[in-house]
């Protein structure tokens, strides 16, 4: 268990008249905003000491340990406070990949009366679109045509794009390098989706390489 008790100076946090401070919870891998809840000084202290999120329930007037009942605990990775010291940002590993009591991954899933996944980083957003094309094919979609071609077509494109990256680097053209790497990333994401490999597992491996 990681002790975050020295991560932020609790006595510097500016609480409102109810003694609470808003806390935004964000996925540590892809940046998705998972939820917003209120913290008291006591719940913040418990969060820092236990490495799991604790909040203050305004309706029940008591502390609540996120995921204690559902099992969807939030393992704290970092805690930050804003420039006015009156809001918190907590990055977490969300167990079960569900933060909302409705069963959705994020509480911020409603857009104009429909359910839509909240925005994450660019790669995750693109991966979601690719998975949607895989599950709900569209006739004119290039992604769907790649997936329909299976490994032979997808892996051939990855090989071609990898070679293009090498050539762009040899030419030392930053714009071409960025373009070719984008193509390589895209086709690699198609391969991940085709084989039902989650891009978040890639992020976890990249986290391990932060040495």
Automatic annotation (TrEMBL):
GO CC list: cytoplasm
Single biological process term from Gene Ontology: L-histidine biosynthetic process
Start and end residues of each stretch annotated as Phosphoribosyl-AMP cyclohydrolase: 1-122
CDD domains per UniProt: NTP-PPase_HisIE_like (cd11534)
Phosphoribosyl-AMP cyclohydrolase domain boundaries: 35-109
Pathway membership, UniProt: Amino-acid biosynthesis; L-histidine biosynthesis; L-histidine from 5-phospho-alpha-D-ribose 1-diphosphate: step 3/9; Amino-acid biosynthesis; L-histidine biosynthesis; L-histidine from 5-phospho-alpha-D-ribose 1-diphosphate: step 2/9
Domain of life: Bacteria
Gene: hisI
Name this polypeptide is given: Histidine biosynthesis bifunctional protein HisIE
């Amino acid at each position: 268990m990681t002790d975050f008790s020295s991560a932020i100076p609790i006595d510097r946090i500016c609480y409102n008249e109810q003694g609470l401070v808003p806390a935004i919870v964000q996925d540590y891998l892809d940046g998705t905003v998972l939820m917003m809840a209120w913290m008291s000084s006591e719940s913040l202290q418990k969060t820092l000491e236990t490495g799991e999120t604790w909040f203050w329930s305004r309706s029940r007037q008591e502390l609540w340990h996120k995921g204690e009942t559902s099992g969807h605990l939030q393992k704290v990775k970092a805690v930050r406070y804003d420039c006015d010291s009156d809001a918190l940002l907590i990055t977490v590993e969300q167990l079960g990949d569900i933060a909302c009591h409705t069963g959705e991954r994020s509480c911020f899933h409603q857009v104009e009366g429909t359910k839509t996944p909240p925005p994450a980083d660019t790669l995750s957003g693109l991966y979601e679109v690719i998975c949607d094309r895989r599950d709900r094919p569209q006739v004119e979609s290039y992604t769907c045509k790649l997936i329909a071609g299976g490994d032979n077509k997808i892996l051939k494109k990855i090989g071609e794009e990898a070679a293009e990256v090498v050539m762009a680097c040899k030419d030392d053209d930053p714009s071409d390098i960025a373009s070719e790497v984008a193509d390589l990333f895209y086709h690699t994401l198609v391969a991940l989706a085709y084989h039902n490999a989650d891009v978040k597992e890639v992020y976890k491996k990249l986290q391990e390489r932060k040495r």
